[in-house]
Please model this.
Amino acid sequence: MKQLFTAFLALTGVAMVSTAANSQTPDLCFMQDSSGHVINLSQLCGGGTDSNSLTAHPEVFQAQIKRRQGGTPIIDVTFNGQHTFEMILDTGASQTTITPPMAAALKLVPVGVEKAKVASGEVLEFPVGRVNSLAVGGAVITDSMVSVGPVPLLGQNFFGDYDVTIKQKVVEFRIRH
Model:
């Protein structure tokens, strides 16, 4: 069985993910595909039969770091389940900000204007609109406001309920209990 499982992983190009690194539940067996989706493998590994226990409630989501800008991670963020853009993970930003071309691709409808103090201390006004969803490595928020500005920033409105760990090649979002 183990050889069959290893061959399956090799053929599909899916990497095995260590339970110790990605779950608070040590008895589960799972893998994570290149999009960050968690797949429960308990039946293949001889574990429990609750096929929804991991996929419905994962504890940690991971996003690959594509590169860094000034040491700050740039990761892929998917909007409305269909448009993926590179964004800067900005732990100092309270709001997620998208660029005008991103807003156009998403057909974002402005619903107002938000004043925000930027890093220089200057107060600027940004158009705001609502997106159906934002997703990173399997973590998803729905019905969220985003600002439109010059730089794509993933802000606290996305990851404020997570403990964020920035590693060498991934960013981990661990659900806060």
User: Anything to note?
Assistant: Residues 1-28, 47-55 have pLDDT under 50 and may be disordered. DSSP finds five helices and 14 strands in the chain. Residues 2-58 form one domain.
